[in-house]
Design brief:
Largest sheet: none
Distance between the termini: 40 Å
Radius of gyration: 16 Å
Order of helices and strands: HHHHHH
Helix content: 55-70%
Structural class: mainly alpha
Oligomer: single chain
Strand content: under 5%
Shape: flat
């Protein structure tokens, strides 16, 4: 497990894509049974991003990832941020 952690810390992009595919593609054959069975595959990339951020940067990496997930981060946020999201701020 330590080798995998060190690899993800050195190469987070490769770790992300590997984990995203590993979490998404096993669900795809279940879509032939019912479209709802494949619904968890939608969350594979998001879960992979959270895991890679936690492994590579720790708690601060996850916090930074989730703070930017609202789409309103940055200096241009009053102009770029959707109106519905501005109401939540």
């Amino acid at each position: 497990m330590n080798n995998i952690t060190n690899f993800v810390k050195r190469h987070p992009l490769v770790g992300y894509f590997t984990l995203a595919y590993a979490l998404t593609w096993p669900w795809i054959p279940l879509v032939s049974v019912s479209p709802l069975w494949g619904f968890p595959a939608v969350f594979g990339p998001a879960i992979a991003a959270i895991i890679v951020a936690a492994v590579s940067e720790g708690r601060t990496g996850v916090k930074d990832l989730l703070d930017g997930a609202s789409g309103c981060a940055g200096t241009l946020s009053p102009w770029v941020c959707p109106r519905s999201s501005r109401l939540l701020l």
